[in-house]
Amino acid sequence: MFNEIPASILERMEQLRRIDARDRTDGTTRLVRLRQVPRETGKFIALWAAAAPEGRYLEIGTSAGFSTLWLALACRTIGRRITTFEVLPEKLALAKETFACTGVGDVVDQVAGDARDYLSDISDISFCFLDAEKEVYKDCYDLIVPRMVTGGILIADNAIDHRDTLQPLIDEALADPRLDAMVVPIEKGELVCRKK
């Protein structure tokens, strides 16, 4: 998977990395910034996605599609599709461009809208990467966990660098009898949950 990344995907990842780096230093407002995951986190979520059981694959918070590209690599490897949700029109447009120029449309379904409006109609969730505004994590958790298949994986980004905001959710996940969960100290921190 990682040794055969197509040039178009590597090129787009580098373009998005440069935009993200610029956004972090030029005064771009927080909501407009790409705020994408670091490369090592991308690889981390791709490995988990490739190992998840049969079922639906979701991403909540597409941004410009950087993390989606990592997840698309996993989906292509195992013959699955991922549905990714984004609410901001500017980021939806960037992600659409990302998916077109990298040719991942065969494994990516892009949804314009708040995932919380759709999750009650989705079942058999086997993998979900949650990287949206931190204030919606709890709502998403409450909608996702009951709909996960046995062995399904939920990964929530920013479990360390936004720990103050996310601590109640982290505590809940760690104590949730339906899950095995831990915070993995990779980059910004990932809350990894596996459905029992």
Could you write a compact summary of the structure shown?
The chain has 196 residues and is an alpha/beta fold. Helices cover 40% and strands 22% of the residues.
How would you characterize the overall build of this protein?
The chain has helices spanning 7-23, 39-51, 66-78, 89-102, 137-144, 163-175; strands at residues 56-60, 82-86, 108-112, 125-130, 148-157, 179-184, 190-195. The chain has 196 residues and is an alpha/beta fold. The two termini are 27 Å apart. The relative contact order is 0.15.
Core attributes:
single chain; 7-stranded mixed beta sheet; Rossmann fold; 196 residues
Helix and strand layout, with pairings?
Layout: H1 7-23, H2 39-51, E1 56-60, H3 66-78, E2 82-86, H4 89-102, E3 108-112, E4 125-130, H5 137-144, E5 148-157, H6 163-175, E6 179-184, E7 190-195
Helix pairs in contact: 2-3
